[in-house]
Amino acid sequence: MNKNRSNLNFLLLVLMLCLGSSCKENDQIKATSKGVQAKLIKKRSPGNVQTSLEDKNGILWFGTTDNGLYRYDGTKFDQILKSDKHQINAISCLFEDQNGAIWIGTENGLFIYQGKTFRKITIPLQVNQPSNKNKYYFKSKAIFTIIQTKDRKIWFATINGVFTYDGKSFTPFVINKNGGGYLNSNNNIEYMLEDKSGNIWFGGRGNEGVYRYDGKSIINLKLQELTLQFGNLKVSHNWAWPQLQDKNGDIWLSNWAGVYRYDGGKFTSFTKKDGLSGYNGLVSKIIEDKNGILWFGGDAGLSRFDGKKFTNYKKELANPWIWTILEDKNGAIWVGTRDTGLYLFDGTTFINFTAERK
């Protein structure tokens, strides 16, 4: 990061954010432009900064689980989406499509932002789909992941299953008819990834291994069990979330006990024993930066992997559990954590971009 930007970021730390939003009965929620200061303000904890995105215009977006959606233009934050009426504060994923529309996945369903207003989108359930037998999530409409594939279709991994959207209608896409999921007895997919060959990878808690779709058929790839340990309690995991394909073509996946790398022929696992940060090596997010360095976020900070060794960072994090990592166009690394923490990582230390509302 250059010196001028570093000085600006330091000055921004003394400022606070105050803003508002409005909504109408027809599910149109106006975006405000009242943010004049430069810290993301959290109302309560233990919510997360759950997801992040840099759009085509260089605007940074941060979705939180308790405090709505924030937009950062480099000088100020705007809290542009905060509506208890519409129950859209619990944001799980953000995605910009090829036309520049921002899709927002929330606990209460799907929303789209097209420059001025937000509109709620209803994904119809499959005909005769059984009700969710999970007593804690039977009312949920959660959207977990959104991707757009090379054929311009948009894919949604939801609590009620996977759906594709061709610009006109939604079509259900069944991965495993007999596979009950972690949060819904009808669904077993939370994360999706399209690789450079056009294969689509699917994964989620409750599965054995991951699934890969080549456009014609779906295969199930089994994974080595990795062990999560709490004191004397050991829990084995052989599910995974597909996270990214790196510059070498390797696929990286994660779960609650470590990560897997797939080189096209075999899976290699990495855990806390190999140097991953964390109490157990738990990994919730992986990115690759412009220099080909991999960054892993988990339950105890940030890990940097240069292909040979892990270097771990967490000193300035109030809560070290990381849920999202974003590299912006200037090469700066942003980290979102539990307790609605947002930090800018300068290569050695974390600069805090969150303030508690008084």
TrEMBL record:
InterPro entries the record matches: Reg_prop, WD40/YVTN_repeat-like_dom_sf
TM annotation in the entry: none
Keywords: Phosphoprotein, Signal
Pfam families: Reg_prop
Entry superkingdom: Bacteria
PROSITE patterns listed in its UniProt record: PROKAR_LIPOPROTEIN
Signal peptide: 1-23
The protein's name in its UniProt record: Two component regulator propeller
Originating species: Flavobacterium erciyesense
Lineage: Bacteria, Pseudomonadati, Bacteroidota, Flavobacteriia, Flavobacteriales
